[in-house]
Amino acid sequence: MTKRTRTLHALGTRINLTVFGEQDDAALEAAAVLIQKEEDRLTVNRPQSEVMAVNHAAGEKAVAVSSATYDLIDQAVAASRENFGFNALIGPLVKRWQIGFAGAHVPAPDEIAEGLALSHPDGVQLDGAAQTVRLNTAGMELDLGGIAKGFIADQIKVLWQAYGVSAGIIDLGGNLLTVGRSPRREDGQWVIGVQDPGRARSVDLGTTILPACSAVTSGIYERFLVKNGVKYHHLLDPRTGWPLQTDLAGVTVFTATSIQGELEAKRLFFAGHAPADWLADPTHLGAVFAYQDGRSEALGLTLAR
């Protein structure tokens, strides 16, 4: 079966799009356009975007955004208010640590307290009728980076279905979404690798076989700061302002949708385990927990070494 690919750099990462059985690149090109348009709307890495308009007006006024942006912000704020670890308002705290960027350092306690005060999701006012977003305090920042890739991947899947794509792979820098039936197996299932947190990118702990689904990983193995012999990773706990204390190196979750995977990967990582009823949800297909001491365990699926 014909395989077509498109590689681009967007959303701060290398993106690989693959379709099988297509006679032209129309579906790939349409997906690339969608990615660029979504980045233009949602980025916080440029002075201008819909999200940055909200941030620039923090403490001053509510800002009207497009319906799609509003819906995503609504989901992100609702998840942040669950207080399980994901927080779309954590930007001010991240900036005080700067882990993974020039100027990374361990903030003083008063800096952490200031960052925490500006990172509380209750400081967001949402008006669904007017589709406006207001950040109540100057210095607050909204950042959808922890959920946007999943949102965009799910949109690409819908787009490809409209194009009649029967099989494809959406890889947004490690956020993976498979579409349709795999052409490489008679049963149509996909062979998906799980990253080994202790080794280089694309070196797997093992592989699992699943129907079309999303695979998303949260982990501490790529960005960190070492200060006075102490290693500080970049996943800050919005409840304390400090890097999360955990035995885990990474958690990979397999879910029906990619936006769901973004949230569930963080939920399980911050909890350190899956809730007893996690697999009772039919959209939760399984998870793999990788520990800092090299151990790993699979939940709800088989991991072939």
Automatic annotation (TrEMBL):
Source organism superkingdom: Bacteria
A family per Pfam: ApbE
InterPro entries: ApbE, ApbE-like_sf
Residues annotated as transmembrane: none
Gene Ontology terms for molecular function: transferase activity
Substrates-to-products reaction catalysed: L-threonyl-[protein] + FAD = FMN-L-threonyl-[protein] + AMP + H(+)
Assigned keywords, A-Z: FAD, Flavoprotein, Magnesium, Metal-binding, Transferase
Cofactor: Mg(2+)
EC annotation from Swiss-Prot or TrEMBL: 2.7.1.180
Database matches in SUPFAM superfamilies: ApbE-like
Enzyme class: transferase
Protein family per UniProt: Belongs to the ApbE family.
Protein name: FAD:protein FMN transferase
